[in-house]
Amino acid sequence: MTSYDDTQVALPTAGDETQTLLGALDRNRRTFAWKCFGLSQEEMQRTLAPSTLSLAGLVKHMALVEDHHFTLQMEATMPEPWASVDWDAEPDHPWTSAAGDTPDQLEELWRASVVRSRGVVERATLDQLAKYCEWDETPNLRRIVVDMVEEYARHTGHADLIRESIDGLVGEDAPR
Amino acid sequence: MTDTPWEPPLSGTEAEALLGALDRLRWTVRWKADGLTAEQLAARIGRSTLTLGGLLKHLAVQEDYAATHKLTGAPMPAVWDANGWDSDESWEFSSAAADSPETLYATYDAAVARSRAALDAFLADGGLDRQVHVAKTVGRPVNARRLVCDLLEEYGRHTGQADLLREAVDGRVGEDPDPGWRPSPGW
Predict the structure, then answer these.
(1) Residue B59 belongs to what domain range?
(2) Is A100 within the bounds of a domain?
(3) A54, CA 20 to 30 Å: which among A94, B56, B111, B122?
(4) Based on the structure, what is the number of domains in chain B?
(5) Is B182 within the bounds of a domain?
(6) Tens digits of per-residue pLDDT, B87-134?
(7) What pLDDT, on the 0 to 100 scale, is given for residue A6?
(8) Residues of chain B positioned with their CB less than 8 A from the CB of A30
(9) What is the CATH number of the domain that holds B33?
């Protein structure tokens, strides 16, 4: 798989664990993308005070989280552009640097990270333990996927309110 | 109990991972809404009509609906007998402003307790593959796994909305409750 397909994984109503978890994750990605994209660079930078979150920052953050959670944790390699970031100098790099990115750059960055993550998941099983771990106990891929569903849903909740304040777009699911 | 009882297991089974993630969100929502006045629970931001009180009441409804109608076909608990859904499908959101903070917290806590017990009892007999009652309404098989995943997504989304609402009310931010935090009695 080399390109991004937003309808790759279907979410079954009576599927097994892998189908359901990965389907739920992909539905969350699709909803997140619907809420964040289709705007100008200026619109993607807007915030809903007092929060400093922007859609641009959310997209770049999620691209990092995709690569961190899947590619780094499961395969112990950190892809670019993250590997070259000086994290000590720029601990909030995704949030701060997103201000200089165009909508196309942000979308491309995020889609590439999703493609990498899907590849990682295809090469593993849900019981498989992470190879790289920052905690005392090593998570399995199951925990990582469940965390990602939650991470996407939560940030989509942020995007719900930010997007509504930008152009009035509301709704629960992305149109088919 | 540990300082962070909401943390799911890092390498658990499917049921432990899903129910653990759901419970962490319950704790987090409760923390995001906790300790506020009626006015603060009714505060809005931007163009949205969402409020923390409305989210608490909506999630209480979602918990009870999932744990009765969707799961087993049981009737909704009597606490919802007096409602305004005939004239306002978002009644739980719009009516929350008239409820006291004590009522909103107690309603939410009771719904969570019922839902936890109903899900545990259901899963003890057949696990996540077991078909749930709502399958009869939608006309195709639906298992408990999908029901829990949908509830997890619903919770995550509303927790994100609660993040921005709470920050606007008093500046409280954060991903999980502070270690050692506990909500009001009854949880």
Answers:
(1) 14-170
(2) no
(3) B56
(4) 1
(5) no
(6) 999 999 999 999 999 999 999 999 999 999 999 999 999 999 999 999
(7) 66
(8) none
(9) 1.20.120.450
Shortest distance, CA B43 to any CA of chain A (angstroms): 13
Contacts of B169 (CB under 8 A, 6+ apart): B36, B40, B43, B52
Mean pLDDT of B29-51: 97
Q: Identify whether A175 is part of a domain.
A: yes
Confidence of residue A135 (pLDDT cuts 50, 70, 90): confident
Look up the ipTM and state it. 0.95
Nearest to A14 among B47, B146, B163 (CB): B146
Nearest residue of A to residue B143, measured between CA atoms: A14
* Alpha-carbon separation of residue B50 from A137, B95, B104, B184 (angstroms): 38, 12, 15, 23
Read off the pLDDT band of B187 (50, 70, 90).
low
Residue B3 covered by a domain: no
Helix (H) or strand (E) holding B157, with range, is helix B144-170
Q: Do A13 and B138 touch (CB under 8 A)?
A: yes
Residues of A whose CB is below 8 A from B149: 20-21, 24, 149
Report how far residue A125's alpha carbon sits from residue A142's, in angstroms, rounded to the nearest whole number. Answer: 8
**Nearest CB partner across the interface for A138, out of B11, B45, B141:** B11
Residue B29 lies in a domain: yes
Question: Rounded to whole angstroms, how far apart are CA atoms B180 and B109?
Answer: 18
Please state the separation of Cα B86 from the chain's center in Å: 23
B47, B156, B167 member nearest A165 (Cβ): B47
Residue B4 is assigned to a structural domain of this protein: no
Q: Domain span at residue A156?
A: 26-77+116-176
